[in-house]
Amino acid sequence: MNNLTQQEANSLLAMDKFYIGTDEFNFPTLGGNLRLPLFSSDHHEEFSLDITRGYIALEKNTFQTRARKAIILARLDLAGPPHRNPDDQEIACPHLHLYREGYGDKWAVPLPNELTHIDDIFDLIQAFMDYCKIIGKPKIFMQKGLTDAG
Q: Looking at the DSSP assignment, which residues form a beta bridge with residue 50?
């Protein structure tokens, strides 16, 4: 189990994050993924933005922000079954997993307002990056035919 305090996790999620580089990326194809390195402004913290696509369903996408290589701070699940939290509460999909001390990413919450009512997958990844305080955003392009999946 990752041993961050809730205060540390909240601070890491709220910290401005930057992609350093000039590469441009295509949104992953079915079954594909992107793992993009991010850094704090002072370069003392390393983060990662991960975008994962399902193999079959176009709408099966997962976006997550990790800190310190493996600690998931936030994960947006767009399609799939409901999630059952450790307290036995069921959260419908789509939902957002947020780090919780002692549980890692095992808790999900309904989508916050800034991530709801977004029909375009490209707009949603931009909103997720905003939610996770990714200020210096990597350039991610949609391949033709993928913009209406979500």
A: 35, 64
Tens of pLDDT, residue by residue, the chain (150 residues):
458 999 999 999 999 999 998 899 998 888 889 999 999 999 999 999 999 987 765 567 889 999 999 999 999 998 888 999 999 999 999 999 999 999 999 999 999 999 987 778 888 999 999 999 999 899 998 765 544 443
Q: What is the amino acid identity at position 18?
A: F
CB of 66 within 8 A of CB of 48? yes
Please check whether residue 104 is in contact with residue 71, taking contact to mean a CB–CB distance below 8 angstroms.
Answer: yes
Q: Enter the tokens of residue 114.
A: 């800034």
Nearest to 72 by CA among 130, 123, 7, 1: 1
Question: What residue type is 59 in one-letter code?
Answer: E
Rounded-to-integer distance, Cα 92 and Cα 80, Å: 9
Contacts of 33 (CB under 8 A, 6+ apart): 50, 51, 52, 53
For residue 137 the two structure tokens come to: 């955003």
Q: What is the chain's percent helix, strand, coil content, to nearest 5?
A: 15, 35, 50
